[in-house]
Amino acid sequence: xxxxxxxxxxxxFGASAVLAVASVVLLHGYLSRAxxxxxxxxxxxxxxxxxxxxxxxxxxxxxxxxxxxxPERYVPPGSIHDISKAAxxxxxxxxxPGEVVTENRLARVRAGPVASLVPRGLxxxxxxxxxxxxxxxxxxxxxxxxxFGSGQPHTETVVEAVEVLLVLSLDHSPRDxxxxxxxxxxxxxxxxxxxxxxxxxxxxxxxAYARAFASLEVAIVPSE
Length: 224
Prior knowledge:
Layout (H helix, E strand, L loop, with lengths): L8 H29 L6 E7 L14 E7 L51 E7 L11 E8 L5 E16 L23 E7 L1 H13 L1 E6 L4
Antiparallel strand pairs: 1-2, 3-6, 4-5, 4-7, 5-6
């Protein structure tokens, strides 16, 4: 014999159904009001975006770019709207596929191969080292120590945790020069490896003094 549900539970289930319907109606109304109060995205505009991954230091080719349409309010400041305005320029920072190309990611027009990689406000300073080729790559950070032999001999840290921009080597293995083709031997470099460092102007002065009057050594900073 089937057991009957108690009559006292029927009002409970009925009230639950009414509350569920009321909740759906209230939620729909809230979402409608939120959508109506949201500011309009504005008209869509053309912007240049990366069609593939493009690494820092690369000269951008037209085939690596494409034009996309984005709502005007979501377009970042300094966006490029014509592929011809970005093609051939060097990237100061890498781009991921679909990322908008902006002026602050691009080196100035007709900048030299090294100057195009140096962010505004910094300098590129070359430091010869005895490090073997491959011990340091661009993007690593190093400390430069100077040992002064005259007067009161001592060693001091000249700069700390500065970024390696380029690595130039006298050997004939592939170089980490960012593909710009700098010839360390033709430039008169005598050390096996020359590091081109990104430094601030005051660090540049300290390095120049230390290079003139002291022996320089490089300490590699651990990656974080």
